[in-house]
Structures are given as C-alpha cells and as structure tokens.
Write a structure and sequence with these properties.
- The complex is a heterodimer of chains A (about 240) and B (about 240).
- Chain A contains 11 helices and 8 strands.
- With about 240 residues, chain A is of the alpha/beta class.
- In chain A, the strands form 2 sheets. A 4-stranded parallel beta sheet of chain A has the order 3-2-1-8. Chain A has a 4-stranded parallel beta sheet with strand order 4-5-6-7, covered by helices on one side.
- The radius of gyration of chain A is 18 Å and the shape is globular.
- Chain B is α/β, with parallel strands linked by helices and about 240 residues long.
- Helices cover about 45% and strands about 15% of the residues of chain B.
- Chain B is built from 10 helices and 8 strands.
- Chain B has an 8-stranded parallel barrel with strand order 1-2-3-4-5-6-7-8, surrounded by 6 helices.
- In chain B, helix 3 links the parallel strand 2 and strand 3.
- The radius of gyration of chain B is 17 Å and the shape is globular.
- Classes of the chains: A alpha/beta (about 240), B alpha/beta (about 240).
- Chains A and B meet through helix 3, helix 5 and helix 6 of A and helix 4 and helix 5 of B.
C-alpha cells in the first residue's frame, strides 16, 4: 500500500526526527505576539519537539499555550554568562517554581578563559545543588572561543561539578562545528550529552552531528530541516 | 579635514569626560578588566562599564585609580521580571557599582505591557539605585517614533539620568539605530534626560557626529580610537 505524503509527514520516523529539536523564540525584541506566533507554529506542525525556548518573561503564557506538547525551556544568563552567580541561581529557582523544565545555563566564560576550572566546577555544583534534578540543564560553553584544551577542561569541570550535559555554543552569532562535538565525544564517550547549537540550518549539518550520537539539537530552522528530511525520505522511497 | 569630521567636542579631554569605557564582551578576561581600568585612568575617562559578574573585580582595579564602575544589569537581553532585575541592581551596588545601566524589557514594552513591566522596572531602577546615576538601555531601532517619544517621557517621569539608544550587542538581527531615530529621541529628551549611545563606534569620527546630533554620552569600547582621532591627542597623555 502506498504511503501518502501525510502518512510520511507524521510517520514515526519523521516524528522522532523532529522530536530531537529545540525551537528557539529568543531575543530582546521578541514580543508576546512573536512568541504566540512561534508557539502556534509548533502546535500547527503536529510535531512534538523536545522543547520550545523562550525568554523568562514569556514562560507562563508559553506553558499555558503549549499545553504539554513540548517542554518549556528558558535560558539562564543568556547569551553572555555575565550575570552573577547569585542572580543565576535566583533565576533558576524562579524557573523551577513557574514550571520551566529545561534550561541552558551559560557559565561564566571569564572563569573558563582564565582557566579557573575550580570556579567553573563550583558554579556547576552550585546550580546542580539548587536544581536537585528538577530542570534538565545543559551547561553552556562558548566552544568557538576556546581551544581544544579549554573545551576539554570546561567539560571536565562540568562533569566534576555533577552535571552531564554540555551545550557547545549559545547560538548567538557563532555555531557549533562537528569537530567540537567529535572532540568532546572522543574524550568523554557517552558520559556527556552534547547539544549542538547555533547556525544549524540544514539537514546536511544535522547529519554531521548525528554521526556523533547527538540526541538533541537546537535550531530555529527545525521546520525547514524537517521538510528537507521528509523530501529525502520521499526520494529514497521513490527510488526503492 | 571637513566640517563634518572636525572633532566635537573640541578637545580630547572634553570627549574623554563624556565617555564611559565599556568592556561587555563574552570573552572578557581578568587582564582585560585590568587594562580597561588602566586605560581609563591614563585617558582620563571617568567610568568603566562592565558586566555584572565583573563588577567586583573591576572595582578592585578601578577604585585605586579613582575610576567609577558601572554595571550593565540584565545585559544584553533584559527580558526578566522587574523584581529579579532589582535584586541584580542591589547586588551590583554591593559589588561596587556607582552607576547603573539596565537593559529594559524591550519585548514587554513592544507587547504593550507598560504598566506590568515597563513603568515598574524603570521606577524601581531609580529607587533601588538610591541616587546613583541610572542609564536605561533600550533598542531604539525596533521602536516606532511614538514609542521612542513615549519611552522618553516614562524615563523622564521616573527620574532616569540617561536613555541609552541601543545595547550595541551584535546579534546580526537588529538594525542599527538611525540618525533619524536619534534625532527623534534627542528632541523628545530635551534637556530633561541625557541620551547615550552604546557600542562600538567605527569610524571614530562617527562619535563627533553623534555628539553633534545631541548625544550626550558614549558608552563604548572604542575610546582609544575616538581619542586618537583628535589631532592634539597624545598616547603619552
């Protein structure tokens, strides 16, 4: 029996593919209308994304609107990691209280660049202790600014601090390269979950990351990439 | 030198007094903060502007030189509830900040949440700052003319010292603030509130144009180049 376009679009294979993604609606200029429109797009798509990423002020309305179809994500000290630890932990507590269940915690990059691995570890441990596992947190390093040694040391500090997920870029301006993912995977094996982010716009880029057993990808182009994926499946099926 | 690029204000000393020397980068290191303060002292720039996490360290370097430290609260996105921002202002003051920059929740303002967010956060900023100079950062390029003027009014009513035209944060998404937008805000500001420009200024002569348009203060990492554009400026100042 022939599979229709719609069957393929909502097949378990495509649903699983789309389900890897975070969809971000972040930025200083984002309005209530922008966020509502973005969430509606998610709902209309029929896909169950990993998470929808919004600024903290839009979390309550996002939770109402998304109705459990995706986890609500809000970042901490995004994108510069430049807020004080006290402020970050307070934001974390606020997020736990209002229902955020996924977050990207931007570490203090000065500590990383100054090689203060003890302070990086302390920051991670403080967040882990406040969080108590309530929110799935990926710890954000700006790998583009770091050499291989620094990437490894930062990841080691994350692991030593009691966490197991690293997001390799904020997605603001810079993007994650497959070589960075490969490096972390080579050194840490499966002990660290790796989240690529930033400038991920095409299926070809996603394919590269999947080679390294990445499970979660952050991209504003999730719907376009999923369309590419569907088109490829259609082509493969028409050839077989 | 054409009239347009003649230095304004006339002397580099005067220009330096209107600059607040900023390092708000993601990759600022301890040595950068030290250099920022040393250069501020050398070039007679009265204030350095840093991210909240760097206020305490910058204060250690700035205080012996007589330089004031300004904190850029909620930089660069500002999308936090007012209460959360105020705790951040208090923390910055405890760490040594004598001037408070704060990014407003621009998206909330654009959403019409003026009574829920905009007025409370601006009023609270002034109250919590406790007499310290306050500078409210917006992104004028995403506001229409009426919104720019309304925001000026709200900031004036609250007693903010300066309205800052832009974050200067390079996202690649927002257009730069235009001369027309600057002129509109300068006119609305009158002499009731200062108008500041934040971000890199390149070429440095652009700083003269900004000042001629009525911008009163520059919060910028480009201080060296701006001052070097003065014929009488000496690196051995």
């Amino acid at each position: 029996m022939m599979m229709t376009d719609n069957d393929l679009r909502y097949s378990s294979e495509v649903m699983a593919f789309a389900g890897m993604f975070h969809y971000g609606i972040l930025g200083i200029e984002k309005t209530e209308a922008d966020v509502r429109s973005g969430i509606q797009r998610v709902l209309d798509s029929g896909y169950r994304l990993t998470a929808v990423d919004v600024e903290l002020i839009y979390v309550p309305m996002t939770i109402d609107m998304i109705g459990g179809r995706a986890t609500v994500h809000s970042p901490i000290s995004y994108p510069l990691g430049n807020l004080t630890l006290k402020k970050k932990l307070r934001d974390l507590e606020d997020m736990m209280r209002i229902g955020v269940r996924d977050s990207a915690y931007c570490l203090n990059y000065r500590y990383i660049l100054d090689h203060r691995w003890d302070l990086v570890e302390q920051e991670v441990r403080a967040a882990v202790e406040v969080n108590q596992g309530v929110i799935a947190i990926e710890y954000n390093i700006q790998a583009t600014l770091l050499n291989d040694y620094e990437i490894i040391q930062a990841c080691q500090a994350i692991e030593n601090g009691g966490a197991n997920t690293v997001k390799l870029n904020t997605g603001y301006g810079w993007g994650t390269g497959p070589e960075e993912v490969a490096l972390v995977r080579r050194v840490f094996g499966q002990r660290l979950d790796i989240h690529p982010s930033g400038n991920i716009r095409t299926l070809a880029q996603v394919d590269e990351f999947l080679k390294y057993n990445v499970r979660i990808i952050h991209s504003m182009a999730v719907f376009e990439i999923t369309e590419e994926y569907i088109a490829r499946l259609q082509q493969q099926r028409s050839q077989s | 030198m054409s009239a347009n690029i003649d230095p304004y204000p006339a002397t580099w000393h005067e220009m330096a007094s209107r600059i607040e020397y900023a390092d708000l980068r993601i990759d600022t290191q301890e040595r950068d903060l030290r250099l920022l303060c040393l250069e501020a002292e050398k070039y007679r720039i009265p204030v350095v502007v840093v991210n909240p996490v760097n206020v305490g360290l910058a204060y250690q370097f700035a205080q012996p030189c007589g330089i004031k430290v300004a904190a850029a609260v909620s930089y660069p996105v500002g999308a936090y509830i007012p209460q959360s921002k105020m705790v951040e202002v208090e923390d910055a003051i405890i760490d040594g900040a004598e001037i408070i920059y704060m990014v407003m929740a621009v998206g909330a303002y654009l959403s019409g949440w003026i009574d829920l967010f905009t007025r409370p956060e601006i009023t609270s900023l002034v109250q919590v700052a406790g007499g310290r100079p306050t500078r409210l950062i917006t992104e004028a390029s995403v506001l229409n003319k009426d919104q720019q003027r309304e925001l000026c009014r709200i900031a004036i009513e609250a007693g903010v010292d300066d309205l800052v035209l832009c974050t200067g944060f390079i996202s690649g998404k927002l257009p730069p603030v235009s001369d027309e937008q600057i002129a509109n805000i300068v006119e609305a500001a009158g002499n009731k509130i200062g108008v500041a420009y934040m971000g890199e200024i390149d070429p440095p002569e652009r700083s003269f144009a900004l000042m001629r348009m009525g911008v009163t203060r520059l919060c910028t990492p480009s201080a060296r180049n701006i001052l070097a554009a003065y014929p009488d400026f000496s690196w051995a100042a």
